[in-house]
Amino acid sequence: MLNDLSILRHPALLLLSLLLAHVSSAQTATANPKKFVPGEIWLDTQGKPINAHGGGMLHYGSTYYWYGENKAGVSWLPEANRKWDGYRVDVTGIHCYSSKDLYRWKDQGLVLKAVPEDPASDLHPSKVVERPKVAFNPLTRKFVLWMHIDTADYQTARAGVAVADVPTGPFRYLGSTKPEGADSRDQTFFVDDDGKAYRIYSSEWNKATYISLLSDDWLRHVGRYTRAFIGQGLEAQAVFKRHAKYYLIASECTGWDPNPMHAAMADSIWGPWHELGNPCTGPDANTTFGSQSTCVFQVSGKMDAYIIMADQWHKSNLADSRYVWLPIEFEAETPRLEWLGRWELRIFDWPHGDAVTRQ
Ligand code: DGJ
User: Fold this and answer.
1) Which end of the chain is more exposed for a tag (fewer CB within 10 A), N or C?
2) pLDDT at 21
3) In this predicted structure, what is the pLDDT of residue 25?
């Protein structure tokens, strides 16, 4: 019989066992993805790491579409951003993945690509294109993509918009604006039950959160807006609605470094917003489990099932940033988040038994 050490005496056996170890670790991530493992490398259906950061989720038909920043290539620190560790990668585009079950993600490619041939373009690799969010407009039957557009030093602060006929693009870039004559950095896009759409974004050097109504085609700001959370310095907004209450999740502003999450609730998208503090509990609650919010979405076909998507940024190697998705629990109207090392969608069913591993 072979014992552990006999492997070392047989190079062919050693090679075979290394090969099997490699195959089985790759399989843990690809072939059996019926669970979420926050902070690990998540692979697409071809076995490649999913590259969709600062992203958003669209549920259309019976498919989920995950859009995010494609972070590829070397991360580097421009001189102008040295004071705040503002690392960057050159812009390559917005990546889209599709899934029927939220576990297995098919690569749909770059649905909005960088424009290397035009240095003046908002989409030139030297710029910043962040926090893409997509929704389907039933009036125009277009898919609308809003995003943060900036120069490498984050001083330009504009809102960019693009449209597509199908969720997998290609998206046609329409340009960028300074909405309400003010700056616009981190942002999200929220569609209410009545079909009205809003952009929620950091403005006034991140010192205020603006909530702006969009035109019926969702391509323009119509000039109706409110300023909220004044003086607080919030970004990474995610907005959702549950039982007729509006929720806003956000982070503080510490560059790529994590900080405590903020939650607030309102009866109207216009506020007043009632602050709920940090919904995270347990160890690492003060750093949002080492991550930063980007989107909250509802799981189709499940009762009261909300998932928060967050990014665990790796600032000096942004391409290796990871995803933290967690189920939101509600204590009456108050959202709560706890770290789960592994979990499955069965957590939303009752009883959920072994659908969770806390560590
Ligand atoms: C935090 C923002 O939330 C990110 O989208 C990005 O702009 C980084 N800051 C840059 O440091």
Assistant:
1) N
2) 43
3) 42
Q: What is the pLDDT of residue 32?
A: 52
Cβ proximity of 26 and 45 under 8 Å: no
Question: Ligand 1 centre and the CA of 98: distance in Å?
Answer: 25
- Residues 6 or more apart whose CB falls under 8 angstroms from that of 184 comprise 148, 157, 158, 159, 178, 199, 201, 202, 203, 210
End-to-end CA distance of the chain: 37
Tens-place pLDDT, residues 87-139: 999 999 999 999 999 999 999 999 999 999 999 999 999 999 999 999 999 99
CA distances from 163 to 20, 65, 131, 148, 205 (A): 46, 15, 16, 15, 28
Mean pLDDT along residues 292-310: 97
Query: CA of 355: how far to CAs of 34, 42, 134, 213, 324, in Å?
Result: 10, 19, 30, 40, 17
Residue pointed to by tokens 């790491």: 49
C-alpha span between 10 and 36 (Å, rounded):
38
| Neighbour tally for 73: CB within 10 Å | 12
Ligand 1 closest atom vs CA 292: 3
In the chain, what are the domains?
Answer: 48-357 (2.115.10.20)
For 181-200, how does the pLDDT look when each residue is reduced to its tens digit (9 = 90+)? 999 999 999 999 999 999 99
In this prediction, residue 240 carries a pLDDT of 98
Between CA 1 and CA 17 the distance in angstroms is 16
What are the backbone dihedrals phi and psi of residue 138, each rounded to the nearest 5 degrees, phi first? -70, -20
Which H helix or E strand runs over 168?
none
What is the 238 CA–ligand 1 centroid distance (Å)?
14
User: How many whole angstroms separate alpha carbon 335 and alpha carbon 247?
Assistant: 9
pLDDT for the residue 27: 39
In this prediction, residue 29 has a pLDDT band, given cuts at 50, 70 and 90, of low
**Which residues does ligand 1 sit against, CB inside 6 Å?**
54, 86, 130-131, 186, 235-236, 255-256, 292
Spatial distance between the Cα atoms of 114 and 135, rounded to a whole number of angstroms: 21
- Condensed to tens digits (0 to 9), the pLDDT of residues 55-95 reads 999 999 999 999 999 999 999 999 999 999 999 999 999 99
